[in-house]
């Protein structure tokens, strides 16, 4: 079906909790099969995931996931990307462990939406405890170490999507595999030179992307501001206190979009814990709001590979004891 009316859902699934605004549902067959991300084109749009649309009073298909600028491999990633691309959501809250793509997806989506003209720029407010520090340079230079995760996300986005970078990487890998006999030293030197050129090109493109679309602000410099037509990324929000959280979530206008990301299991700020922090406060404050999407990644949705997954599994085992 193109959609599922709420009354039909409640009749068919009487034991389920009442649907709330923008609740996502992952449906599967009795065999447990939900989705093959490497299947045919229709599978890539995650037809087994629906969202309860309060205005239509129906469970609807994902409507924006086909516009994703990057490949999505997990159900949590599909739900998050759908929320980021949906213009009706003015706030997206994304929680979950490290390595699931919270910052990466937000940064990739922000860049694409600016390119296509939905926003005029990206506002980044890094979580900094205390003042801007004593590093030399202007405020941007002082804050640069704290926005490295965003710049790293831009770099990974370019590696995945930019044809120039992809071509250089493919050439580098191909030459490395073709090393033979007495030419091994020359080929290795050539490969090393190519590697340096890839790094230099990447750094140049990251800087160009940042300078074109991104601006970083210290929290003390946004009081009284009103951001219009901006995509606003508030990373590591679990390290903001309640006063700072209130300041940050009241800056945007209706033509802007705000993304809060973080992990309440990794609170680094003094005097805060998993129950008393900006992220937990925001999740509770906006519960059930029709213009807000809440996404949570599972530990099994880690995208950084086997080593990080092993760490997450081991931590889960220890919590169980």
Describe this entry's structure for a reader:
The chain has 321 residues and is an alpha/beta fold. Helices cover 40% and strands 13% of the residues. The strands form 2 sheets. It has a 6-stranded parallel beta sheet with strand order 7-6-8-9-5-10, with helices on both faces. A 4-stranded antiparallel beta sheet has the order 1-4-3-2. The radius of gyration is 22 Å and the shape is globular. The chain starts with a strand and ends with a helix. 33% of the residues are buried. The model has no long low-confidence stretch (mean pLDDT 84).
Task: Write a short abstract of this structure.
This protein is 40% helix and 13% strand. The chain has helices at 6-12, 75-85, 102-115, 139-143, 148-161, 163-177, 184-213, 242-249, 278-285, 306-320; strands at 3-5, 24-26, 49-53, 58-61, 91-95, 121-124, 214-216, 230-234, 257-262, 292-296. Helix 8 links the parallel strand 8 and strand 9 (257-262).
Main sheet?
6 strands, parallel
Q: Give, in spatial order, the strands making up the sheet with the most strands.
A: 7-6-8-9-5-10
- Give the % helix: 25-40%
Shape: globular
The computed structural class is: alpha/beta
| Gyration radius from CA atoms, angstroms | 22 Å
* Average pLDDT: 84
Poorly predicted regions are none
- Quote the beta fraction: 5-15%
Strand count: 10
């Amino acid at each position: 079906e193109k959609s599922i009316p709420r009354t039909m859902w409640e009749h068919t699934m009487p034991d389920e909790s009442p649907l709330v605004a923008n609740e996502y549902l992952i449906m599967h067959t009795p065999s447990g099969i939900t989705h093959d991300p490497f299947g045919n084109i229709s599978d890539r749009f995650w037809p087994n995931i629906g969202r309860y649309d309060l205005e239509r009073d129906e469970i609807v298909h994902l409507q924006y996931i086909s516009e994703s600028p990057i490949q999505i491999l997990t159900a949590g990633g599909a739900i998050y990307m759908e929320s980021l691309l949906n213009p009706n959501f003015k706030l997206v809250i994304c929680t979950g462990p490290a390595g699931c793509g919270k910052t990466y997806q937000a940064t990739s989506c922000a860049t694409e939406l600016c390119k296509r003209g939905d926003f005029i720029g990206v506002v980044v407010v890094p979580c900094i405890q205390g003042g801007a520090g004593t590093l030399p340079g202007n405020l941007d230079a002082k804050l640069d170490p704290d926005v490295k995760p965003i710049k790293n996300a831009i770099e990974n986005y370019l590696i995945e999507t930019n044809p120039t970078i992809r071509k250089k990487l493919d050439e580098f890998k191909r030459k490395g595999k073709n090393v033979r006999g007495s030419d091994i030293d020359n080929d290795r030197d050539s490969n090393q030179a190519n590697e340096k050129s890839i790094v230099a090109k990447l750094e140049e493109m990251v800087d160009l992307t940042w300078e074109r679309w991104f601006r970083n602000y210290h929290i003390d410099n946004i009081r009284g501001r009103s951001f219009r037509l901006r995509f606003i990324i508030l990373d590591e929000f679990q390290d903001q206190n309640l006063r700072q959280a209130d300041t940050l979530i009241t800056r945007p206008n209706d033509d802007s979009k705000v993304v809060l990301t973080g992990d309440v299991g990794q609170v680094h700020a003094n005097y805060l814990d998993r129950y008393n922090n900006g992220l937990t406060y925001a999740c509770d404050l906006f519960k059930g709001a029709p213009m807000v999407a809440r996404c949570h990644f599972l530990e099994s949705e880690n995208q950084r590979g086997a080593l990080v997954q092993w760490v997450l599994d081991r931590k889960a085992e220890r919590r169980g004891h």
